[in-house]
Amino acid sequence: MLITALIGTDAYRFGGQRICSNTQLRTDLLEVAVWAEVRALLENPQRLEQEYHRRQQEPTNAQQLNLANLEAQMSKLRQGMGRLIDSYAFMFN
After folding, report:
1. Whole-angstrom Cα distance, residue 54 to residue 62?
2. How far is CA 78 from CA 24, 48, 53, 69, in A?
3. Chain mean position to CA 55
4. b/e per residue, 35-52, with b = 16+ CB within 10 A?
5. CA angle 74, 80, 81 (to 5 degrees)
6. Is residue 18 a contact partner of residue 11, using CB atoms and an 8 Å limit?
7. Confidence band for 3, pLDDT divided at 50, 70 and 90
């Protein structure tokens, strides 16, 4: 299967103005590159297994975002506790 089209965002198709600012690429060259990578993976399945295990080890973006949110909440709570302590101290001085 060979895809050689570079159509879809051409200016002449949409009243003289391109609808996408991304640069076009040659899909025939892309297809060759993708199939070369697929062939390499099929010839070396251990590479795929290693990548799978590597990705299992690293934290996901969702985990990292959750950690960042928790740290931000802890910071706000510490600030609030500090203000509360200062208020109590002010009342008793």
Report:
1. 17
2. 52, 45, 38, 14
3. 14
4. eeeeeeeeeeeeeeeeee
5. 90
6. yes
7. very low
CA dihedral 29, 35, 37, 39 (to 10 degrees): -150
| Tens-digit pLDDT profile for residues 14-39 | 777 777 777 878 889 999 999 999 99
The pLDDT value given to residue 32: 93
Kind plus residue range of the DSSP H or E element containing 45: helix 45-57
Helices 27-43, 45-57: inter-axial angle, 10-degree rounding: 90
Q: What's the whole-number mean pLDDT along residues 46-75? A: 85
Distance CA 30, CA 24 (A): 11
Regarding pTM above 0.70, the answer is no
Place of tokens 């070369």: 36
Task: State both tokens at 50.
Answer: 């290693």
Q: Above 50 in pLDDT, residue 71?
A: yes
